[in-house]
Automatic annotation (TrEMBL):
It comes from Albula goreensis. It is an enzyme of class 2 (transferase). Its EC number is 2.1.1.137. One of its GO terms (biological process) is toxin metabolic process. One of its GO terms (cellular component) is cytosol. SUPFAM superfamilies: S-adenosyl-L-methionine-dependent methyltransferases. One of its GO terms (molecular function) is arsenite methyltransferase activity. InterPro entries: Arsenite_MeTrfase-like, Methyltranfer_dom, SAM-dependent_MTases_sf. This is Arsenite methyltransferase. Residues 84-238 form the Methyltransferase domain. It catalyses: arsenic triglutathione + 2 [thioredoxin]-dithiol + 2 S-adenosyl-L-methionine + H2O = dimethylarsinous acid + 2 [thioredoxin]-disulfide + 3 glutathione + 2 S-adenosyl-L-homocysteine + 2 H(+); arsenic triglutathione + [thioredoxin]-dithiol + S-adenosyl-L-methionine + 2 H2O = methylarsonous acid + [thioredoxin]-disulfide + 3 glutathione + S-adenosyl-L-homocysteine + H(+); arsenic triglutathione + 3 [thioredoxin]-dithiol + 3 S-adenosyl-L-methionine = trimethylarsine + 3 [thioredoxin]-disulfide + 3 glutathione + 3 S-adenosyl-L-homocysteine + 3 H(+).
Amino acid sequence: MADFEKGTRSECANDCASCEPVSYDDVKDYYGKKLQKTADLKSNACIAPAQPIPAYIRKALTDVHPYVANRYYGCGLVVPECLEGCRILDLGCGSGRDVYMLSQLVGEKGHITGLDMTEEQLEVARKYIGHHTEKFGFSKPNIDFVQGYIEALKEAGLKENSFDIIISNCVVNLSPDKTKVLREAFRVLKDGGELYFSDIYSSSRLPEEIRTHKVLWGECLGGALWWEDLVRLAEEVGFSPPRLVTASIITVDNKELESLLGDYKFVSATYRLFKIPKTTTKKGCLVVYDGNITGCDKSLEFDCHYVFKVNEVREVDAELASILKNSRFAEEFTFQPDAQTPPSGSCCAPPKAILVNPFELIEQMKSVGTTSATGGCCAAQTSCCK
């Protein structure tokens, strides 16, 4: 395999995996011409892991045209909660499966923008705008598709402070400059906005021979970010510390590619990052989830640490308290006066250390006999209240 063209480095350190040697044309060719359907993938990295899907999301997915869904190459399920009326940006929307799915959930008063650099994928997405608008019963489309690069949202015409939520499904790993992706996402998000994305992460920084392999890059492995670099980059850009939502191991299932990867391990993980004003005072508090979010009438699984049950008093850490108070979730919770200790009958105190390592989360779930690394470690009292 020929090497990728050498890209320029941003101000991050030279050994940082956020800046990779890559050719956009190679990625366009892989996803625009070589991949015509999901079955053309050479590994399972870009195939969503099997996990329970809420009924309202299953219904929304069912309503997406089969031709659009068949050209879906995501590695997770990127459906954050509390979407009605929101403005959402999908980075690397591809054929538009997630755009059409989410357009139903935001409703006619919301709006979804799908951005992709691959003409062939956008051609598929745009072809079915009328079909889905009619199927959803909307008087006019609540979506648009824009051609552009996820590192250059300004050049694509996307204004700063204009989106409530940004999603991305197995695309950030394809970028030659992850730092620019996060900076642009931060720029176009409103205060209190969220970047909710699923992607592939490696157990350590990858060597050049893996990062310059065209097939490994196209299969979302060669450009995988070391999970520790995500934590560092998020802080550098200005996001709140990443909240780990789900994680599942990637087995690759291709002997030729496995031999090239050696001992490096990979996971599919979903994180949520929030743009919280720097002037915000951070202090832990007690909260009660009111149960009014669609699909979460009994409980809200916020991340791998916190599952909020309706009308149950929970103590939250300072970072999460700041997020809940300054984001779209503020109206979904009742905030009680600060207290040093939770009242009688409330859930356990929050974990002393917030877990962000997806590999560690998977190991924890294995140790307690959970097959899917999702649902919140506090969902089971025995896992966090010892």
